[in-house]
Amino acid sequence: MDAMAQLDKGSWMVGGNMGFQSANSRSTFYINPNIGYFFANKLAAGMAFSYYNASTSLVSVGPFMRAYVKINAVSLFLHSRFVYTNTTTGSIKNDQFGFGGGHGVGVFLNEYVALEGLLDYCIPDLGDSKNSSLGFNIGLQIYFPKK
């Protein structure tokens, strides 16, 4: 298999991460699955979903884009995303639109699976940038080369 085939046009990726985020003296653990399609070599777009539940229930969904550089078994990438978030605290519901992005690195454990880390800056509400956050995510991606 070609060393770059995982990132070729027509390939798919499925995976996600779990992360830790700290903002305004509040820490959060969350899960974030995603699916993406390589519309060009080393360029992918897809959808991501996030879920968190404690005293506040948070669900978000939105498109993302990634641009990759691959060096042997390591891939470096830029990640950008747009998010729609619905939060519920008791009977109070709030809808927000925001964006985020960051730098990531993936280490291929075999031909198809990469362990990834992503340093992500997020502004969850475009109307209130005071609630921005910086997070570090660790997860796995499975890459399905085109046939």
CATH architecture: Beta Barrel
Strand content: over 45%
The overall strand count is 8
What is the terminal-to-terminal distance?
Answer: 12 Å
Q: What structural category do the secondary elements indicate?
A: mainly beta
CATH top level label: Mainly Beta
Low-confidence stretches: none
The ordered string of helix (H) and strand (E) elements is EEEEEEEE
Largest sheet: 8 strands, antiparallel, barrel
- How big is the Rg? 16 Å
For the record, the count of structural domains works out to 1
The percent range for helix content is: under 10%
Shape annotation: elongated
* Biggest sheet, spatial arrangement of strands: 1-2-3-4-5-6-7-8
Brief sketch in words of this structure:
By secondary structure, this protein is mainly beta.
Structure description:
There is one protein chain. The protein is built from no helices and 8 strands. By secondary structure, it is mostly beta strands. An 8-stranded antiparallel beta barrel has the order 1-2-3-4-5-6-7-8. Strand 4 and strand 5 (74-89) form a beta hairpin.
Task: Considering the chains and any ligands shown, give keywords for the structure.
147 residues, mainly beta, Porin, eight-stranded antiparallel beta barrel
Write the layout of secondary structure elements.
Blueprint: E1 12-23, E2 26-40, E3 43-53, E4 57-71, E5 74-89, E6 92-108, E7 113-123, E8 133-144
Antiparallel strand pairs: 1-2, 1-8, 2-3, 3-4, 4-5, 5-6, 6-7, 7-8
